[in-house]
Amino acid sequence: MNDAMDSAPTPDEVDDNSEALAALFASPLFAGPDPSVVSDVQSHEEAEATQWVEDAEVYARVQQIYTAIVSRAPEHKVQPSLDRVRRALDLMGNPQESFRTIHITGTNGKTSTARIVEALLRERGLRTGRFTSPHLSSVRERISIDGQAISATDFVQTWDDVEPFIDMVDTESQAAGGPRMSFFEVFTVMAYSAFAMAPVDVAVVEVGMGGRWDATNVIDADVAMIMPISHDHEKWLGHELTDIAFEKVGIVKPGSTLILAPQDPEVRAMAYEQAHRVQANIVDNFEVLSREAAVGGQLISLRTPAAVYEDIPLAMLGAYQAQNAAAALSAVEAFFGGAALPANVVEHALMSTSSPGRLEVVKSSPLVIVDAAHNPAGARVTREGLEEYFPGPRVAVFSAMADKDVAGILTELEPAFHSIVLTEMVGDRAMDIDELQEIAVDIFGEDRVRVETELLDAVAAAVDIAETVDPDAIAPASVTVLGSIMLAGHARELLGASIVDMESHA
């Protein structure tokens, strides 16, 4: 018999030991947790596990819904009719008529301005909805309630609410030889439904593309905003600035107030003509009186039709953001009948507003900035902001969509960067890397262009280059990822930035 068997206890010894252990555990010397506490802890853990499973199912459902919607005609493909959106909303009882609206178009600055407008409205105690596009990380960013992306549960519920009506309109349209509702048309209907169900007092709605035929333009907004118009989406909106402006001024409706940002003289004349045609009020007498860079943003003084607002902290970078703030402030004044806003409302709103993906610092060491500039006008203001706030050696990481004016964008950026690292994006719209390299070499010169197909490799290469340009530079070297909103969103995710809860990447 081996040693283990020799030392094994007899059955009687086992019984004696069990009784002794039971007595010990029951004695004050071994006071364990109260059984009811143990039960509570177990119940809590079971509840958490159940909730985790339920959440995972909801997030999976969000992804499933998004995949189904994105299979429709893409948002950049304009379908010149509002009939499908109007029909769907009419079947639903016209939810868009249950709240007031501020409608924003223009080429650049729409999303940042929408965020500022919404913050000002919330500071005045109103419940808000915000519809913007495209998204950076999660599709749920497009529909926000009270400044927060719609929850996954509410996103699913909204889709369940509108799906029967979308199906009905699809069937009717296809029976008449027309298309199904597009990606953007569906999301517009979802947004208006979600805002009505919340319910919100006012919605801040950003045009997807153009204005006149944009799916959002089924609303009759109290205030229409036309931000600076420049060349973009020329394949769909036209090559001449006046062609683009013609589409955008179409959001100005009878009896509304038009907030008109500084424009090319021809564009300004067209906006005035549209406003007079529909008897809309025009507000364009607002301006930035002064601004100075400050840590994390800038200190600005603004003049609007109602007041002068002095030394207001704005938590966003760049002169263009100060101009956006002036327009946003004028819009909210108009929304409330033209009266000046309390100084504390303005200060709290502008201090709390951020605009992810717009001159956004996503890492401080090494210094990495993400910007969504995707047209020459956007590239110009980005370059100016970088030169003001980040004077150290700069290297760009760049990619772009094939339908963009890449040569125009790179020409604007070239003076601000020591060199540029090109990378690839997924999707049919992305520009071929060889074509991108050819354009970049023509503008930057071969010695200043490098190619890294993977984004993380491109950022790492750019950091290496930036840090060796001038080791003795007083200001830190920086890397800026830009050229596409999709690229900006991908960079934010890879580098750890987040807008909504990161459980969902739908």
Write the layout of secondary structure elements.
Elements: H1 3-7, H2 11-26, H3 35-70, H4 83-91, E1 100-105, H5 110-123, E2 128-131, E3 143-145, E4 148-149, H6 152-175, H7 183-197, E5 202-206, E6 223-226, H8 234-237, H9 241-248, E7 257-260, H10 265-277, E8 281-283, E9 287-294, E10 297-303, E11 308-314, H11 319-335, H12 343-352, E12 360-364, E13 367-370, H13 376-389, E14 394-398, H14 406-413, E15 419-422, H15 433-444, E16 449-451, H16 455-469, E17 478-482, H17 485-494
Parallel strand pairs: 1-5, 1-6, 2-5, 6-7, 7-8, 13-17, 14-15, 14-17, 15-16
Antiparallel strand pairs: 2-3, 3-4, 9-10, 10-11, 12-13
Helix pairs in contact: 3-6, 4-6, 4-7, 5-11, 5-12, 6-7, 9-10, 13-14, 14-15
Family: Belongs to the folylpolyglutamate synthase family.
Enzyme class: ligase
InterPro entries: Folylpolyglutamate_synth, Folylpolyglutamate_synth_CS, Mur-like_cat_sf, Mur_ligase_C, Mur_ligase_C_dom_sf, Mur_ligase_cen
Structural domains: how many: 2
Mean pLDDT: 88
Quote the beta fraction: 15-25%
Q: Can you name the CATH architecture of the largest domain?
A: 3-Layer(aba) Sandwich
Structural class: alpha/beta
Which regions are unreliable across 5 or more consecutive residues at pLDDT < 50?
A: 1-11, 501-506
Sum this structure up briefly.
This protein is an alpha/beta fold and 506 residues long. It is built from 17 helices and 17 strands.
